[in-house]
């Protein structure tokens, strides 16, 4: 009996500890985000108040109104930035995923010379911090004449994302048993059909997650974009945030409002694709 | 339906040759089982017939047509894989109909064929499930259904039962045999389980290290093994093998035991041979089956018993080698008990001591 009791007490206290641990972790993760959302809806006075006002007295849309307003009234070209971000992120993600699929499949399925070396080389490029590349990239892009263009940004982001997508997709194709493609070939498919009708659908959850990672990387990237974009023709949203800084003031409210606009598409996308993110689609086809 | 011919077929991986120039004729609607220990090249041979492995040398014909350079889809075969390889993102119905869909058949034709196959394999209630929601045996049947849907010329089975538990394996074995009787198709079946090979095959092909050791009906390879490898591989328990020397027209084992020469053999004096006898043919006195006139008797101590119900396996040692014997109408036996065993000499074999090849009677 006593051991039973002890066991129960221990289980309950462990549960409590788990709950407390998770709560603190979530708090650390969520409070900054919530703070941004909150600040975007309240007057600057309240944002700057010391000590901080935790429970807002007044909520309004002033910052949003101002942001979408004319140039003189603290407005910024939000829609242009949004379009730039969207074009650059989507294009670079699509290209990175296509290259990643081809590369990842090759690494997962085929044997070729220097396979290990090439793979390590690809991964090593991930070890170089993006900022370290900004100056060389700036100089090259300036010479070639693609500074401040969508093309330049897309190229930079594709280069940034490809090693990662290859690595991720390679891992997912490795989990797809080669017998599936063989069975498809025997069932009458060509090699190409076997890939698209069997292997691709089975690995699509992995490819979707690689896509999200690539998209979010491009969507949120700031360091490179701040160097390689100059004007509204290519400025992305993270760079656009800087429009709210002026020589002596920082428009925190406006910045938060733009940040909220930035977060929304990423959130929507994650929600849409999250069911694909749950791996396990490959189970069942082969022995359990 | 079609016959399959392998002519001097070789498989090399770089410099490593794993299948050495094998020849095999498989008749139309014959059930042939390739059997052998792991790594003997049986699966590789099957995959070469399927077109999943390139053929390094020689020729493979299906229905009189050389298929060496044809992709799998043009060979008109179907294959059941060891791990089933069902498409996990499709329902059972879609899995079964996939090959017809790829062949751009009309939907009613596909539905019809799928329903028929499902009925043969009693899969009808499972048609709308995905493979993930099926048990091992059900997945196995779906894999077989996918193979029969499009009436191929040749069925290839690559160890299809090895992932099932023992009971289910016995059931599916019967189902495969029934399926063959119903479809009358040519089947090449790979397994490492000699019981499966014996029970299923019209003809067994025993392979070792990329060579074919013997081809024959189950009874032929059981009763007349061409060498010691086949003798120990086919049959359970494996054939007992004992080293012996011919002495005064008798066989002398290393411990001095003498037994009469099995009838029909006439070996030279002093020749070293390997004496082979199956457990079924060495039985304790009083627990033997009716037997012929040529008998030998040896006395051995029983070290271990394995009661199987209708018979008990007795483990003893003779001339330093373990010998398994069968006791019919068994009674309880104490370990350490000394018993007299009768050897049915008519059913014994002699092999060359050096090469292991069977000696002629």
Automatic annotation (TrEMBL), chain A:
State the GO CC annotations.
Answer: plasma membrane
Provide the GO biological process annotations. transmembrane transport
Q: Which residues form the ABC transmembrane type-1 domain?
A: 82-273
Q: Which InterPro entries has this protein been placed in?
A: BP-dep_ABC_trans_perm, MetI-like, MetI-like_sf
State its location(s).
Cell membrane
Question: A Pfam family matched by this chain, by name?
Answer: BPD_transp_1
Q: Which residues cross the membrane?
A: 20-38, 86-107, 119-142, 154-173, 194-216, 252-273
Instruction: Give the bilayer topology.
Output: Multi-pass membrane protein
What keywords are annotated for this sequence in UniProt? Cell membrane, Membrane, Sugar transport, Transmembrane, Transmembrane helix, Transport
Family membership, please give it: Belongs to the binding-protein-dependent transport system permease family. MalFG subfamily.
Function per UniProt: Part of the ABC transporter complex MalEFGK involved in maltose/maltodextrin import. Probably responsible for the translocation of the substrate across the membrane.
Protein name (database record) = Maltose/maltodextrin transport system permease protein MalG
Q: Which species is this UniProt entry from?
A: Thalassospira lohafexi
Upper taxonomic classification of the species? Answer: Bacteria, Pseudomonadati, Pseudomonadota, Alphaproteobacteria, Rhodospirillales
